[in-house]
Amino acid sequence: MDKLIINGQKKLNGDVYISGAKNAALPILIASLLSKEELKLKNVPNLFDIKTTEKLLFAMGVEISKTDSSMTLIARDIKDLHATYDLVKTMRASILVLGPLLARFGSARVSLPGGCAIGSRPVDIHIKGLEAMGASIKIENGDIVASTSGLPEGKLVGAEISMSQVTVTGTENLMMAACLAKGKTKLKNSAKEPEVVDLGNCLIKMGAIIKGLGTDIITIEGVEELNGAEHSIIFDRIEAGTYMIAAAMTAGELRCIGIESGKMTSIINKLRETGVEIIESDNTVTVKSNGILKAVSIETSPFPGFPTDMQAQFMALNTIAEGVSEIKETIFENRFMHVQELIRMGADIEVNQNTAVVSGGKMLEGASVMATDLRASASLVLAALSAKGTTVIDRIYHLDRGYEDLEKKFNQIGAQIERVN
Ligand code: UD1
Asked: Which of 115, 124, 146, 279 is the most buried (most CB within 10 A)?
C-alpha cells in the first residue's frame, strides 16, 4: 500500500491547474447508459473512482476509449444490467446506474451500498423516487432489484417527487431516469450543486428536456430516446478549495487556474474571513497569505451553503489559526474521522456530537497518521504541509480516489512530498 512522506513548512508558490470535478464526471460517465450513441467527454480527471466507473460500465458492455483527459463512451449493446457488490462497495456512486438502466432497459440490479466511513448513507430517497415513477423494487440477496414490467410499454412514468432531504446523487439518479420516462417529472427539494447542474447540461446536449437546474425544483419532460453529445466536465471546486487552503496555511501565494469562482463563493468567503487575500478573475483565483490566520466557524449545508467536502480541510486550517472555532457537520453523522489524526499532530480539538471545537494557534508536528476517507486524507496532507518535520500518511488510496496527481501538483509549487510503496 502506498504512503506519502511529507516534509512540512515549505512555502507554496506558483500556478496549479485544477482538474475536472470527480463528482460531475462520475454521473456524466454513467449518463452514457441513456443513449446508444457516442458521448464524447473532455476534462475527465484521472482518478481511481473514474477507473472504477469505467470498470462498471465496461462490464455492462459500454465501449470506452480515452486519450489523456478525453473519453468517448458508447452504450450501444448493453449485455449486463447488474452492478455487483465488488464495485459498489469501493464506490457508492455506482448506485447512479440504477436510474439510467431502469429508464432505458426496464430492469436493473444494483448491489445495495453498505455503510461507509462517514456514516450510514442510505439510498431510500433514490428508491422511493423510482417507485413513484412506477418501478417495482425489492431487495434480493443484498441487491436492489428494479423493474418496470407491468408499466405501459415497460416505461417509467413521470411523477411529482418531493425528496425528504437534499441529496446530490439522489437528484442525479432521478433526473437521469426521468429523461426517458413517459411524461413530465417534477423533482422537488432538488440538489443545486454545480455538479448536478453540469450533469443536467450534458443531458440537455443529449436531447433531454430539463428546466430549473440549479434551483429547488427541476422539471424533466421525458423523451423517446437521447442522442450522442460532446461535453467538457466542470472544474473541481473541492480540489481548488484544498489548494487554496494549502496556500493559506503555508504563507504562500497560489494561482488556481481553470476556475469559475462564482461556483465556490461559500468557500472563498470563508477563506477571506481567515484574513488571506483572494483575487478572483475570469478563469483564476489567486490566494495570498502572510501566514497569520484567524480561525473561522463553519456549518456545513447543501449548496450554496458551505460544502461538507471542505469541512475537514478547514478544520486543518483552524488548528493553526488564531482563536477558537466551531465546526458543525450537518450532512453526514460520522465525518470527524480526521480529528484523532490531527490531534496526533498536535491539534487541540474536542468533538461533541456533530460539533467540533478547535482551539487554534497550535504549531503542528509531523507524525505517522492514517487516511480514513477522501476529504479526511486531504486535511492530513494540509496539516502535514504546515507541520514542523516529517509526516507519513498511510492508506492514501483514499486520496487517489479524488485528487488527480496530488503529489506532482504540490511538488511543482514547492512542497516536498514523496510517494513510497
Ligand atoms: C454526494 C457527493 C459527496 C458529498 C455529498 C454531499 C458524489 C459522488 N458524492 O454524495 O462527495 O459529500 O454529495 O454534498 O457526488 N440521504 C438519505 N437518503 C438517500 C440519500 C441521501 O438519507 O436516499 C442522506 C445522506 O445520508 C446524507 C444526505 O442525505 O445525510 C446527503 O447525502 P447525498 O447528497 O445523497 O450524498 P451523496 O450523493 O452520496
From this structure: 146
